[in-house]
Amino acid sequence: MTERPPQRTPNRQLAALIAEAGFSNAGLARRVDQLGLEHGLDLRYDKTSVTRWLRGQQPRGTTPALIAEVFTRRLGRRLSAQDLGLDACAPVYAGLEFAASPEEAVDIVGGLWRKDSGSHAELRKIAFTPAGLVVPSRDWLIGRADERVGRGEADPGHSRVPIQGRPVVPRQRQGPERGPGQRVTSGDIAALRAVGELFRALDHAYGGGHARQALVRYLEHEAEPMLRGTYGEQAGRRLFAAAADLTRLAGWTSYDIAAHGLAQRYYVQALRLSQAAGDRAYGSYVLVTMSRQAVYLGHGREAVQLARVAQQGVGSSASPVVQALLYSAEARGHGVLGEVRACTASLVRAERSLEAARPGDEVPHWARFFDEAQLADEFGHSYRDLQQYRAAAQYAERSLQLRAPAFARSRLFCRVVLATARLGLGELEQACQLGAEAAQAAGEMRSARAHEYVRDFERRLEPYRDAAPVRGYRDKVAALG
Predict the structure, then answer these.
(1) CA distances from 231 to 132, 150, 176, 404 (A)
(2) Helix (H) or strand (E) holding 304
(3) Rounded-to-10 torsion of CA 142, 147, 148, 149
(4) Of 136, 308, 113, whose CA–CA distance to 212 is shortest?
(5) pLDDT of 239-260, one tens digit each?
(6) DSSP letters for 47-102
(7) Residue 426 — left, alpha, or beta (φ > 0 → left; ψ -120 to 50 → alpha)?
(8) pTM for the complete prediction?
(9) Domain spans of the chain?
(10) What's the CA gap between 429 and 422, in Å, rounded?
């Protein structure tokens, strides 16, 4: 006697929301498919699929989050998968959402940290979607500053009245681990900053894959409880700023291992956290980081738009070094598009801005890397993309002369740019020597970008594959294993 399959319970929550939204089954399916396309997903749902969901079948994978977002857009209020009677899943859409409040931002980014620190490999396989750049950058540009980020206490001398007119007594620590609701100290925030510098140094020297998971776990176990703790307004702004910096770094290291959809989500959340911090300049830096990812993936138009939004967002208030950084990001986008005049104009603006910087100028900690070596690197990459190889070689050599050894991955990238320029100038032997040095350095890093730079150079070698220098290059690389 065969067993009957278990009876499913009809999903009355979903049925009620379909009626409220005025969707037909086919209409809902179509909207889910369209939203999936925004996130690089090829979905094929139809009215029969929705009928099955109403009968109690649970859609798989990322679909519950997409269905929830369809209803959120239609009804104008935030709905989760659970609100629809569906199983929760990885926050595929939520990571691209620019939250309405600091509290919601903490919920979203905390969900990303927890999923990423676990065994949810699907997060690292999500595709990058250019369409996902538009709304967050717009919301950052036109959004108002958050009036309040403090939780449970007022800063000394602050005129805000505590919640319900009563002072809040912070909970005492119950053990070595921090718990939600505990008071955040200046030492806690300083520790977040110090940890960021440590992970940044590891990333520069050994690649994003070296300690990325440790960074994400730190965010989950240390940063999130702090964000859910007790702090006043001033401390809260500093806390959100530190969390934004670490979240951007989590995105950067994800980008470096080619987890591009996940990196994109971290960048969006770092942008929102920077708004809670009240730090427009840092928000512009996050947008520049997003622009660099778009350049790497070949989305030049989006890269230019992001750089321009960053410029518009800070206006003339940014320091000359920050202005140089923003103009150089725009130049890289124009370079990918082959727009010679626009690229050259942006490079000139970047150069003039950096020349305007003076010793003693106040430069944000995150912009201090942008010096003459970095500017020469931007010139070298841009001229390579424009196939102006003599200029590319000149600037790449200058960057390598100026760049500190600690920036090992940046030196590798620049060496490949120089090798490509030498190849374009017909200097095959020099190109292969430089390429072999880069391949050796890439073998010591956990960086998908480093390996892709080397592969790009090797693709450019193909027309010369029978030449002696190319055979020698291949022998050297094969010996590296």
Answers:
(1) 32, 5, 19, 39
(2) helix 300-314
(3) 20
(4) 113
(5) 999 999 999 999 999 999 999 9
(6) HHHHHHHHTTPPPPTTHHHHHHHHHHHHHSS---TGGGT------TTGGG---SSH
(7) left
(8) 0.79
(9) 12-89, 97-153+183-278
(10) 9
